Amino acid sequence: xxxxxxxxxxxxFLILSLFLSAVACVSCVRAxxxxxxxxxxxxxxxxxxxxxxxxxxxxxKVKESLMTYSYQKPGKIRMDIQKPxxxxxLIYNPEVSGKVRVRPFPSFKSLVMNYDLTDKKxxxxxxxxxxxxxxxxxxxxxxxxPDSRRISFDKSGLLNxxxxxxxxxxxxxxxxxxxxxxxxxxxxxxxKDF
Length: 194
Prior knowledge:
By secondary structure, this protein is of the alpha+beta class. The chain has a single domain (9-184), classed as Clam (outer membrane lipoprotein receptor (LolB), chain A). Helix content is 20%, strand content 34%.
């Protein structure tokens, strides 16, 4: 089904659904000391920027989602989508609005749509919302929900990869935070302007 703006609800926000689905599916670090380190490391993070990559393998097909993800405490988020729909931008800035602002078409810069955090167009099927998509929330979920997923952290102690496995140990989904920059200079306009 396509919206009045020509965006397929299924494909237009597929990247967001894949991204947010990781909120509900990440697992915990086995050692309690790792979880303690994660909490300490996160206290020193005021902002970060990275390339976020999600791969889903289903029936022999691979779907890739790719974006630049920018974050600044206390909960400002910007997603610049590269795949599957290049040019879509999502901004959530609780200091400006409680809505997720979406620019669906790069060629129509004035077209901006506003959605509630729980709207299906900007949330995952499992209930994951944009305001809980940052690394702090992800790592909290990892430490709180133990299971058999493979998790890795970078040398600073921040989460950098989650692999969702089937019962045979084969990868079903993979979520990666690549080229992670901690506390980079952030222009305030990044979380306000498209």
